[in-house]
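the two lines:
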Amino acid sequence: MNLDLKTIGEFGLIERLKQEAIVVPDRVVMGIGDDAAVLKGEGGYLTLASTDMLVEDIHFTLATATAREIGYKTMAVNVSDIAAMGGIPEQALISLGLRPEQTVAFVDELYAGLRECGRLFGVNIIGGDTVSSPRAMVINLAILGRVEEDACLYRSGARPGDILLVTGNLGAAAAGLDTLLDPRPATAAALTFARRRHFRPTPRVAEIRAAVAAGGITAADDISDGLVAEIYTIARASGVGIILEAAALPIDPATRELAALYQKDPLDYALYGGEDFELLLSCRPERVTAVQKAVAACCTTPVTRIGSVVPAAEGIAIVRAGKKLPLHPGGYNHFQRQ
Amino acid sequence: MNLDLKTIGEFGLIERLKQEAIVVPDRVVMGIGDDAAVLKGEGGYLTLASTDMLVEDIHFTLATATAREIGYKTMAVNVSDIAAMGGIPEQALISLGLRPEQTVAFVDELYAGLRECGRLFGVNIIGGDTVSSPRAMVINLAILGRVEEDACLYRSGARPGDILLVTGNLGAAAAGLDTLLDPRPATAAALTFARRRHFRPTPRVAEIRAAVAAGGITAADDISDGLVAEIYTIARASGVGIILEAAALPIDPATRELAALYQKDPLDYALYGGEDFELLLSCRPERVTAVQKAVAACCTTPVTRIGSVVPAAEGIAIVRAGKKLPLHPGGYNHFQRQ
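prediction for all of em together
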């Protein structure tokens, strides 16, 4: 029992924490183990509940982020968890651990960011807790949402034959992080784009609602820990393999420009970058075109085919320049990276 | 705008955070400002939601608390918020910010404490987040519960003529804190009692359910920041005055023994100690006896008359040795004490 957290990692820990967690199962459809918990609700709806904690100098640093950006992003990452279930975000509880010397102006700006994102996605701030945290600022948000009983998406629904889709584009948030940690001269357009993608990700709520309405979506996950990590998550939860097409990954020209500047492979940004908060979806092949059209019509967001779901025995691989290569997990793991 | 948090304090901050917090009011009965938020629910029930953050070396220290005690208390203080609304706790989301060197055994014990208290009160652990927090451990719990539409209790319901009641006894948690911070030789019985009251408070769920069923309860608040602070909270929210009877305050003999040992006035423990997590109630005078009997029958917990609700013009006072004295606020304020 002298295991430390680095040894078992975040996912090993979650497996332990799931044990004996449910004592009154009546209303629980899904507990620990997806982007949000799912509870029985009312009028044909399920209730969704999720929470995310952001710690100073781990998830953000005040040297590069404004209070408003921290607030906006905290709300956005939680809204994204609800989107990943196919749902509509509704209510938020916010806990703030503040250093006592932090100013009221700072908190006002933080809340301005929380409210700005909340307003965009219809999320009320219904409560919270404010406490002293002298060594590092901490912000925790718990979010509630709802989804129609027949529209709830789990990570476990992908089936061989499905097509793998992704919304928007990949790797920009990671490129944005490089511009913050190691500022170098780039075009203003690329810098603005990447910073925005890092601090103001767009949760794909309207997109997933349109996609589900079009029919054929079988599983969803939001890309917080990197595309490859989320591919492993869906593959493990669904009991399937996944073959990714490297050439198909949507990468913005600004992200490519920054990759060149930082001497990185843009594919690495896209595969392992994390924090894009795009949605990774699996979809029945005959519905892909309808889904793409529906999302384009509502939101102008591209939905790109990036691979296919295969039987588990075929494993998890990437096709690059005509060669099928094993795809190693390597996304963000909270206890192994630190 | 160069106000700092110490200047405006926790309550001044909460007033600011309430502004523009609700963007879709349809389902929100009560947002920020009570022990829990209240949402429209189903089948004659309202949904309750609350959250509490506990920070290492502010709310607990690993030098005196076991992981199991921290877990138990975190669940208990959140359950207490639901009890203070008259409700039944149901679901919990838990965020853990852990130092990377903390062991899996530590987390297992923390969760054992969370689950132990959760099991006692029927609370499922349905989700959470685990992140790295190198400088201080942080635990945040968000809790959901429900209450019948006609049974929900607010801080704002107290009316002149009501009797002020309190469950259990007061000051023991503060005495327990003294025994932890400055260990001195006391009887084993007193030490065990006070430590238990500090680390394993009993949320008064069964008590409030019995009290509400008996009829006449008009307002409730749980005593987290100290009796006087909660009296101010109820008085301000209800627009009333409150006269407390010092001689009536229920103080356990063990608490008195420890007060003598630490050369403190046991009344100070009871008035300002905090963290007792007893319930402060206002009750129509003709229902007091029925409430006391109902709670005694279900739970053997005493419910004691400790004062009366008066018009706001009469202020907030305490009667001690026949003299009516002003009662100064002085409970825990997260930004002023640190």
